[in-house]
Amino acid sequence: MQQDMIVILDLGSTENTVLARAVRDLGVYSEIYPHDITPDELRALPNVRGILLNGGPNRVVDGAPVDVDPAVYSLGIPTLSADHPTARGEALPHWPEDPAALTELLRGFVFDTCKAQANWNMENFIADQIELVRKQVGSRKVLLALSGGVDSSVVAALLLRAIGDQLTCVHVNHGLLRKGEPEQVVRVFRDELGANLVYVDASERFLGKLAGVADPEQKRKIIGAEFIRVFEEEARKLEGIDFLAQGTIYPDIVESGTKTAKMVKSHHNVGGLPDDLAFELVEPLRQLFKDEVRACGTALGLPDAMVYRQPFPGPGLGVRCLGAITRERLEAVRESDAILREEFHAAGLDKTVWQYFTVVPDFKSVGVKNNARCFEYPVILRAINTIDAMTADVEQVPWPVLMKITNRILKEVPGVNRVCYDLSPKPPATIEWE
C-alpha cells in the first residue's frame, strides 16, 4: 500500500464516517475499525501513522463503557481521542462541531503530530488495488456480478486492467430491474465495450423465492443468497472459476454494523451471503465512499454516462415494492420509476439530483376514477442529494415538475390513485425505504 493511513477506532460513535471523510479530504487515507482490534492487528495494518479514538452515545455496552486494549497506547503510534457530548451534558472532550474547526484540529494532528503524507489519491489507490488483485488472484479466473450500476462497472474496469481476460462478467436479470435495464446492460457492456458477458434471465426463479416474503431483511438475504446460487451455477458451466468479484463499497460495510455500532440494514453483498460460499471474494472498492467510486471510475477512463449513472440497490425494485412483492405492484414501481426518470431528464434534474426513484407500499387508499369509487395503491416519490450516501437532503423539486410527474403516473400506471413526495432527510430516514 502506497498511502499513509489514519485509523479510527469505533467507541460507539454514530459519526465515524464524518471523521474518516474529514481525514481523506486532507489527502490522507483513513479506515474505521472496531474498538477491540488487538495491538497485533493494528501492527499488521500498512503505514498507520495515527489513531483517532471516537467515542459516542453507543459506548456503553451491557452497562459498562467499552474501551480499547491499553496496550494500544504502547505501540508508539500518536493517538487523539474524544467523545461526543452526552444527553446528560457531561463535560467530556469532544470534536469541534464547526467543520472548519474540525479540519484544523485534524490537520494539526495528522501532519504535525503524525507526520503523515498527503498521498491519498485515485492513481495510488488504483495502483494498490491492481497489485492486490493480481497477488490474490494469480493466474486464476474471476466471476463478476455486473449489474450495470456504478459500483460493478468500476469494479469491471479495474479488474479488466488488473487481470484482463481472466474476468468473466455475469448479468443476472432477477426480475427486479428498472424498465429497459437488462437490454441496456447487454448493449453497453457486450456490444459497445466488448466485455465477456453472460446474460442470465432468472426473473421467475427470484420472484418464486420471494413469494409471500414481507420482511425487508429476509428479502435482502434471499436475493443475496440466490445471486450466489446463480453465480455458482454459471461458474460450473465456465469451469475454473475460483473468485467472485463484487461492487461492495464502504457505506455497505459501515451500515451493516460493527461491534459497537448498531446495524442500519444488512446489504445483500455484505450480510446476505451464505455460509457455504464456494468462492473467495474480490472486493477492490470496499474502502471507498460513493463519490470516491465515481472518481475512481473517471480515473479508469469510464465515460461520464456510466460513472454518474443513477445509484440502484443490489436487491433492485425488491426493496422499493414494499412488503411481500406482487407482480401488480412491481410493475407499478417499474412504470412509475420510468416516468420519474424521463421527467427528471426533461427538466435537467438528472444532472443535479444524486438519486431519485419511486416506491409502492403494500396498502391501498380510497379514490375516485371514472366517477366511481376505487381502492388502489399510492406511489411515493423520493429525490435526495448526498456526497457519501451516509447523510442526505431532500431535493426541492419545482412544483410544475412534480405536478407533471404526478399527472402522468395517475394517468399511465394501472392500479394507482395517489402520488406522494417523501420529505424525509437521512437521518432519521434512510435513502431507501427498506
TrEMBL record:
GO-annotated cellular components: cytosol
Pathway where this protein functions: Purine metabolism; GMP biosynthesis; GMP from XMP (L-Gln route): step 1/1
Keywords from the named record: ATP-binding, Glutamine amidotransferase, GMP biosynthesis, Ligase, Nucleotide-binding, Purine biosynthesis
SUPFAM superfamilies given in the database record: Adenine nucleotide alpha hydrolases-like, Class I glutamine amidotransferase-like, GMP synthetase C-terminal dimerisation domain
Domain of life: Bacteria
Entry EC number(s): 6.3.5.2
Chain sites annotated for binding ATP: 147-153
Leader peptide range in chain numbering: none
The keyword Nucleotide-binding appears for this protein: yes
InterPro entries referenced in this protein's UniProt entry, alphabetically: Class_I_gatase-like, GATASE, GMP_synth_C, GMPS_ATP_PPase_dom, NAD/GMP_synthase, Rossmann-like_a/b/a_fold
GO molecular function: ATP binding; GMP synthase activity
Residue ranges occupied by any GMPS ATP-PPase domain in the UniProt entry: 120-309
UniProt KW Nucleotidyltransferase keyword: no
NCBIfam families, alphabetized: guaA_Cterm, PRK00074.1
Purpose of the protein: Catalyzes the synthesis of GMP from XMP.
This protein's name: GMP synthase (glutamine-hydrolyzing)
Organism: Anaerotruncus massiliensis (ex Liu et al. 2021)
